[in-house]
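Support request, please re-run this one:
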Amino acid sequence: MHVLACGCIPLFTSDGLNLYFYSLTAHFGSWEEVPGTNKQVWQVAATLLYGQLIKSYRRRKLARAARVMRCGSLEAVRDRLQALGWRGVRQTAFVERVNLTIRRGLAMLARRTWATAQTLVQLQDGFAWWRGYYHFVKPHESLRVELTVPRDRGGRRLAQRFRQRTPAMAAGVTDRCWTVVDLLSYPVLA
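Re-run finished. Output below.
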């Protein structure tokens, strides 16, 4: 909640995992006092919009996709998505893409692998390493910036037309691509 603007209740869409619902309703709400008693109850924010796309598979093929509203109305979700410039249809494509990116970046999360994490600490350490590498070391082609004047690299090499950037550079956290040595030597606060 520290990253969101004050009073901002975002729109959430996910797959059918119930843990998302519990996490969102525990986070977006407030304690309210029950009239006539001295008790307080947790009240989920009325402006919270949360819809799920539940996919059913048969023989590894998508058989059915059901759309379920957990908080808010379908019309409110459609209006909010269209206001953001989207089509207004709930989907899980972005979450699935992030999951695939993480699974490909961490060998211990890949399917059918020998490199499984044996403990939760190993998984957390591996994920922390991958997250640092992904955001600070690895340039992303979609974030590159076209140079106003192509930079000559000498010899027969073509002039450099783009400046490669990492997500940390795009967010303004750093001004250069880090090396693996930079990432491993950065002090971590425990």
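The beta strands are 11-14, 29-33, 40-44, 49-58, 61-71, 140-151, 160-165. Helices lie at 18-27, 74-83, 93-105, 120-137, 167-170, 180-185.
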